[in-house]
Structure formats: C-alpha cells, structure tokens
Amino acid sequence: MTTQQAARVALVTGGSRGIGAATARALADAGLDVVISYAASADKAQEVVRDLQSRGVRAAAHRADQSDSRQVAELVDTVAATFGRLDVLVNNAGVAVNGAVDDPEPDTAAFDRQVVVNLGGVVTAIRAATRVLGRGGRIITVGSTLAARAGFPNLADYAATKAAVTGYSRGAARDLAAREITVNVVQVGPVATDMNPPQGGWADQQRATVALGRFGTPEEIAAGIVFLASPGASFITGSVLTIDGGVLA
C-alpha cells in the first residue's frame, strides 16, 4: 500500500462487482479508504470489503438503491459521518435496458427507471457530495462510448442517459471549479463483466467494433479512474477520458 493518499476516503457506487469492485480495489491499493454501495448483492459486497481490508485500508459496504434519491443522499452523508470525510466520489452504479424507439409497445417503466438510476442517481450523488467534499475533491462518473456513437440498434434510451451524464458533468465542473473540485467522466467501451460477458449474446458484434479486437477488463477501466482521482490529475476537469480499445478511433 502506498501512503500518498493514505488519509483520503472514496465512495464507489455499485462496487460489489465488475468495474466498481475493480475500482474499489485499485483505490485501496493507492492508499485510500473505500466505501462501496450495492443494490442487492450483499454477500458479494462483503467479500469485496474483506478484500479491501486485507489490503490495509478501512472499508465498508452500504446498501443503497440508486433510483431512490433519499437513499443516495443518505449514503453520501453516512460515508462522510462514519469516515470523517469524503474525498472521491465514483459514480459507477447503473442499469441498461434495450429497446427500439419505434417499438409499438415500449416498456416505459423500464425507461423511466433507467433515467432515474443512470442520470438521477448520479445527479443526486454529486449534489450530496458537494456538501461534504473539501478542496481538491474528485467526482468521476463511469460513462459509455454509446454517448458519442450508438453503433447498434435498440440503444437510444441507454445512450441518452449516458450523454446526459456527460453534459451534466461538464456543467458541474464549471460550478465546482472555484473549490478545486474536479468532475470528469470515464467513457468506456465493451468491458468483460457479469452484466456484459465476452462470450455469447452480442459479444462478437461488440468485439468487432474494437480496434484492439478484444473486450477491456475492469482493471483497465479502474486504472483510469484512479488516475483521475489522484493529485496528478488536478488540472483535469470537465473532461471525458475514453477507455475503449479504439471503438471511437
């Protein structure tokens, strides 16, 4: 464990698996104390917590439904109260629902939930974090290359939520610049996770769009997030860091 960031505290939403869990581990390896949130996977969340603690940092997991603004705000406040501070917010939790815009019977309830989780949950977390982040705080949201290029049909609704997050983050970066709080987006391409396995389904179609010819790993995404959370990224705000293996090349 390094000591460069030893006193800092990070919150990673949706940190029980995939990119969130990898990010939590990478932040712990960088010396940060880490709190993760989860929606349903309590056992997986506690497994991640034990792993983080084995790396020599303080760690905890809290259940919070990203579609419930009250729970999201309480999550941020609980982290700050329990750990004494909050320095880094990583908005990773999200859902993906596919559907064509000309579907004669669209699942409007699923669309509404996707907007509430992917955009509303991020907005609520950022607003809550601004009450407790000190100077030099970091806000990083996991986005998608679909915000810039919808390369497949049936993804318009999801792409819209990710594009909205990018626009909101740029605006928030302006609002928080005077406090030296940076706000950035990590825009990812196909990544091998439980939600997006690299085999079966439409994995081959996704892989064909990647210049490097493979899915990324959660650890590769986490590396970019840790960089944006570090002191070395203090002059980067309102930016989109694309980690996509060349999807947008």
Automatic annotation (TrEMBL):
Gene Ontology MF: a single term: oxidoreductase activity, acting on the CH-OH group of donors, NAD or NADP as acceptor
Q: Name one Pfam family in it.
A: adh_short_C2
Q: Which UniProt keywords apply?
A: Oxidoreductase
Recorded hits in InterPro entries, A to Z, give: NAD(P)-bd_dom_sf (IPR036291), SDR_fam (IPR002347)
Q: Which Gene3D superfamilies match?
A: NAD(P)-binding Rossmann-like Domain
Q: Which family does it belong to?
A: Belongs to the short-chain dehydrogenases/reductases (SDR) family.
Please give the name of this protein: Oxidoreductase
Q: Which organism is it from?
A: Actinoalloteichus fjordicus
